[in-house]
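Limitations

Structures in this collection are predictions, not experimental determinations, and the ligand pose is part of the prediction. Treat each record accordingly. The example that follows, with guanosine-5'-monophosphate as the small molecule, is included so readers can see exactly what is and is not provided: the inputs are given verbatim, and the output is the predicted complex.
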Amino acid sequence: MPTLDKNINDLKVLISEEEIQKKLVELAKSIENVFPKDEVIYVICVLKGSTMFTVDLVKHFNNPIQMEFIRISSYGHEQKSSNNLQAIDLTLPNLHEKNVLIVEDIIDTGLTARFLTDLFKIKHHPKKLVFTSLLNKKCARQIEIEPDFYGFEIDDKFVVGYGLDYKGYFRNLPYIGYFPQ
Ligand code: 5GP
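Predicted complex:
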């Protein structure tokens, strides 16, 4: 078990639980509008960070939903963004000509978003592919990519909570916070 060198009492709230939940209602409505009414949407939850976001978001959809899960691994340093990404635990159904929504926790450098969208386009040929992330660190981007939808734009600080972790901890917090330097 990784040792926890951060104290929850030092954590500052960046986005409250109330703000997140309110935003999800708007976001779900906007996302659903771009998919054909009543058609199945395959929602792809990118483990582990987007679990909270995905389960709360899908509660607001009216279209029929299938939930799928994917894990991404990177060779090299775990805490750093990497160009060497690989999809693991890939037990996805046939998504050819299906409506697909990829749900990410945060877009930072943009490398993971690029990897995921390329993977789904090239391997699965969906009818419609939409990418959403809860958080968007626009200022940290290393490549040109934007999500179709996002919840909040944030500064270039390391955040935890609502699925996002530090050494595996803090995912269970209902809000997004950060440790001031
Ligand atoms: P990328 O740099 O490829 O856009 O982001 C890759 C992944 O890094 C994200 O999906 C997320 O898991 C992680 N990440 C990026 N920024 C943060 C952050 O501020 N906090 C946490 N906990 N993870 C982050």
